[in-house]
From TrEMBL:
Keywords: Phosphoprotein. InterPro entries: CheY-like_superfamily, Diguanylate_Cyclase, GGDEF_dom, Nucleotide_cyclase, Rev_trsase/Diguanyl_cyclase, Sig_transdc_resp-reg_receiver. This is diguanylate cyclase. Its EC number is 2.7.7.65. GO terms for biological process: cell adhesion involved in single-species biofilm formation; negative regulation of bacterial-type flagellum-dependent cell motility; phosphorelay signal transduction system.
């Protein structure tokens, strides 16, 4: 997500001079991409996902209105902000553009200072919207994804797995004797430990599509699309071992002298008749069993037979 760094502006205009003038104007502050017709605009928009498009209304073959409709029809480009730039200066034309969902409308011949001011304002709004979306999806303490984000992604990934028959692995990870940790070291130390655990979890994930979310107080859920049970179990075991290797002292633990975690996991075999809540419950049951069996271990349903029983650090 582009929360920091230079924002990208795509200028789509069939007139070479207009394109050049706008490009020169914007270049000192933004990364500028150019398109000379509607088709090119759509292609560049899909490829580069600009933050804003300055879109000429009158272009041969595909006009700006058609480009905007196509952008909105594609999930990937649907939310890109668009400012129409048009020689059609009548209020009715402006109204059409705005009704179609354009963020703004600038009449030609344009004033450079006004263009820059309007572009800056739209890009500021884009930044603010992204920041709000980001905050709505992230847990404030651990900076992992939050429960809401997990629910959204889980639903999508579960559907995808059903559609393409690929496996989907899910694990629940819970800190051992964390209540005692808080009681012994205090709540602020507990928060620091939780953040350290979250960092270890994030660094242990292998693929961009993997997701770690804070599910509850000291419980983290891991979602690994397109990952077989054996592979997922290895990833989770490595994460648990990495957490123990942090050597966060835990004198009050009945399990080990350092902070440890337990995990339960399950893999949806793409073709099996299983709902997403069944898969989640399976992982939860395995987590419960891992706790009951003494904690500091990973248990997996349908684990590959050739894997040895997994466990984290030994006391
Ligand atoms: P188990 O090994 O069975 O998981 O035992 P536990 O003590 O970890 O589990 P329990 O459910 O009894 O206690 C969870 C503790 O996690 C209690 C709660 O104070 C602590 N906790 C939950 N969220 C936070 C948090 O945000 N910060 C801190 N410091 N502690 C938290
Ligand atoms: Mg716990």
């Amino acid at each position: 997500m582009n929360l920091v760094g230079t924002q990208k502006v795509l200028v789509a205009d069939d007139d070479t001079v207009n394109r050049q003038v706008l490009a020169e104007l914007l270049k000192p502050e933004y990364t500028v991409l150019l398109a000379k017709n509607g088709e090119q605009a759509l292609e560049r928009a899909a490829r580069h996902l600009p933050d804003l498009i300055l879109l000429d209304v009158m272009m041969p073959d595909m006009d700006g209105y058609q480009v905007l409709r196509s952008l909105r029809a594609d999930e990937q480009t649907a939310n890109i902000a668009v400012i129409f730039i048009s020689g059609l200066g009548r209020p009715e034309d402006e109204a059409i553009g705005l009704k179609m969902g354009a963020a703004d409308y600038i009449a030609k011949p344009f004033n450079e200072t006004v263009v820059m001011a309007r572009v800056a304002m739209q890009l500021q709004m884009v930044r603010q919207r992204r920041m709000l979306e980001h905050l709505a999806h992230v847990d404030g303490l651990t900076e992992l994804a939050n429960r809401r984000r997990f629910d959204e992604v889980y639903e999508t990934e579960w559907q995808r797995s059903r559609r393409n028959g690929r496996p989907l692995s899910l694990a629940l990870l819970d800190i051992d004797s964390f209540k005692q940790y808080n009681d012994h070291y205090g709540h602020p130390a507990g928060d620091r430990a939780l953040r350290a655990v979250a960092r270890a979890v994030s660094s242990g994930l292998r693929r961009p599509a993997d997701l770690a979310a804070r599910y509850g107080g000291e419980e983290v859920v891991l979602l690994m699309p397109d990952t077989e049970a054996a592979q997922a179990q290895q990833v989770v075991s490595a994460i648990c071992a990495a957490i123990a290797a942090l050597q966060i002292q835990h004198e009050a633990s009945s399990v080990a002298p350092m902070l440890t975690v337990s995990a339960g996991g399950a893999t949806l075999n793409g073709t099996a008749e299983e709902s997403c809540s069944d898969l989640f419950c399976a992982a939860d049951t395995l987590l419960y069993q891992a706790k009951k069996a003494g904690r500091n271990r990973v248990l997996w349903r349908a684990a590959a037979a050739d894997l040895p029983p997994q466990s984290g650090a030994q006391p």
